[in-house]
Amino acid sequence: MRTFEDSYRHKGLRRQLVDIIRKKGITDERVLEAILHTPRHFFMDSAFDKIAYEDRAFPIGEGQTISQPYTVAYQSQLLEVKPFDKVLEIGTGSVYQACVLAEMKAQVYTIERQKKLFDSNKQFPYPKKYPALKFFYGDGYEGLPTFAPFDKVIVTAAAPFIPPKLVEQLKPGGLMVIPVGEGQVQRMLRLTRQADGSATTELFDNFSFVPMVEGKNN
Ligand code: SAH
Predict the structure, then answer these.
(1) Which residue from 96, 207, 209, 213 has its CB within 8 A of the most atoms of ligand 1, so it is best to mutate?
(2) Which sites are catalytic (predicted)?
(3) Ligand 1, atom 2: nearest CA belongs to which residue?
(4) DSSP H helical segments within 130-186, as ranges?
(5) Residues 103, 133: Cα–Cα separation, whole Å
(6) What CATH code is carried by the domain that includes residue 94?
(7) At a CB cut-off of 8 Å and minimum separation 6, what does 8 contact?
């Protein structure tokens, strides 16, 4: 069950959360503002209400998780989101990351491979406040060729390698933020697609994501 009441207590906890992730090193004020305005407790079962603003991941069913707020902020900062950027997200999950990007005025195309999560997200009223946030059921390794090219791509599951089709779907000068690695720990990587189609990559900190799995799941 979920409840959609945003009390003063929730708002206060959100301000504390923003202070915590600022202290951990997030400096982009637009990212911090979006975290401040996104009621994270709406995105999980009401059983988590008291702890929804702790800086940690939580289970959301189907063996998946809502990412840690610090991780969401970290990836959003690396993505350098500008208003009207066309952003492809792989791994809709709870929709929290997608709403943070939409709050930063991005046009978000988000893909989920698990049918149950995709279907339950259709019943979720909160994201409807962002008309530019669009949901797709499919395999993130394929991207969304019909809607390409994108200014940015964000992958929110652990990728064993950089999916070539996602690089192809980036505009020249476009950025992809993706955790890469097969074990328990992945390295955050930012790829920039050059005008000639080649790519450069920068390495950032280690994180731990659920795996990016090939194919759709009914
Ligand atoms: N962005 C999410 C994080 C969810 S966890 C949030 O803010 O809550 C990662 C999600 O990626 C899971 O829901 C998982 O089912 C999904 N996923 C894994 N492999 C995928 C793939 N190949 N294509 C699309 N989604 C995938």
Answers:
(1) 213
(2) 67
(3) 93
(4) 164-168
(5) 10
(6) 3.40.50.150
(7) none
Q: Is the pTM of this model over 0.85?
A: yes
Cα of 196 vs centre of ligand 1, distance in Å, is: 30
For residues 162 and 109, is the Cβ–Cβ distance under 8 A? Answer: no
Number of domains in the chain: 1
Q: Active-site residue 94, yes or no?
A: no
- pLDDT tens by residue, 123-139: 999 999 999 999 999 99
CA 47, CA 30: separation in Å to the nearest integer? Answer: 30
Q: Which residues pair with 122 in a beta bridge?
A: none
* 218 within a domain of the structure (yes/no): no
> Which residues of the chain carry a pLDDT beneath 50?
none
Pocket of ligand 1 (CB under 6 A): 64-67, 90-91, 93-94, 96-97, 111-114, 117, 139-141, 156-157, 210, 212-213
Among 7, 46, 67, 198, the one annotated catalytic: 67
